[in-house]
Amino acid sequence: MPEALVHKMPEAILVAENVQMTFAAPDSPLEALAEATFSLQPNAFVSIIGPSGCGKSTLLRILAGLVPPTSGRVLFAGRPLAEPQREIAMVFQHPALMPWRTALRNVMLPLEVLGEGHGEAERRAGDMLSLVGLSEFAQALPRDLSGGMAQRVALARGLVHNPDLLLLDEPFGALDALTRERLNAELIEIWQKRRVTVLMVTHNIQEAVYLSDRVLTMSPRPGRIVLDLPIDLPRPRTQETLYLPRFTALTRILRDSLG
Ligand SMILES: Nc1ncnc2c1ncn2[C@@H]1O[C@H](COP(=O)(O)OP(=O)(O)OP(=O)(O)O)[C@@H](O)[C@H]1O
Ligand SMILES: [Mg+2]
User: Fold this and answer.
1) CB-side exposure of 155: number of CA atoms within 13 Å?
2) What pairing do the DSSP bridges indicate for beta strands 30-40 and 223-230?
3) What's this model's pTM, rounded to 2 decimal places?
4) Pocket-testing residue among 19, 20, 21, 23, ligand 1, by greatest number of atoms within 8 A of Cβ
5) Which of 93, 211, 214, 218 could in theory staple to 169 by disulfide, Cβ–Cβ 3.0 to 4.6 A?
6) Residue 249: its pLDDT value, please?
7) Are 187 and 132 spatial neighbours (Cβ–Cβ below 8 Å)?
């Protein structure tokens, strides 16, 4: 690449280089992730699709700094990632809310951990809850929330401390199509307002195309990245986007790459 072009490209916020993961097991080691190499540009929205068990959650946990890869390395903001960072937030596949804390106090948690004062934490958590449309449920306990509401609380908790990178592991996996559609629209709005970089795992090809700047697909376990596809659809995306021939063409390319 000509040097002039290299300098114009913004520095990647996250780089995964030959990331590989093998779990120790009593009988034989289990290779969960064969190879992942890619980078994320700041403010990008990138999705990952792959068959169940191909190592997507494993990859996200590595990128969150929660577990080290068996081999390869991850750079975050130009530095090797060795532990969780406050600039990286992860929303897990199953929303892990604290059952004894209200929705509001669940969202306040990351701010409390960071030593934010109670009043300020409460104010920011309240703002986040209203951004995900849950102001009315601030005082509800997780057991009194629907599945979709619990996922929105988990999303609010992930975003409340303004992370630079948001890792989402199938955040809308267990929801009906209409709720999912609404949350997708909310997510796009939050992404644009907050200028956060998003890496999202999903099983849904249409959802990935609709939301993303790029979609990566993975092979069955042990997973490797088989395609890194730029999504050249204009924004803002609307219901009409779903009927564009290019939308269909992109979903087909992704579907074909999954075998
Ligand atoms: N801590 C662990 N110890 C041992 N094996 C693990 C561990 N975590 C994951 N695995 C194994 O690694 C493989 C990949 O798991 P992972 O959860 O990353 O898949 P996934 O792509 O997220 O699947 P799904 O789409 O179903 O969520 C699976 O075979 C799983 O059993
Ligand atoms: Mg998973």
Assistant:
1) 27
2) parallel
3) 0.93
4) 23
5) 93
6) 98
7) no
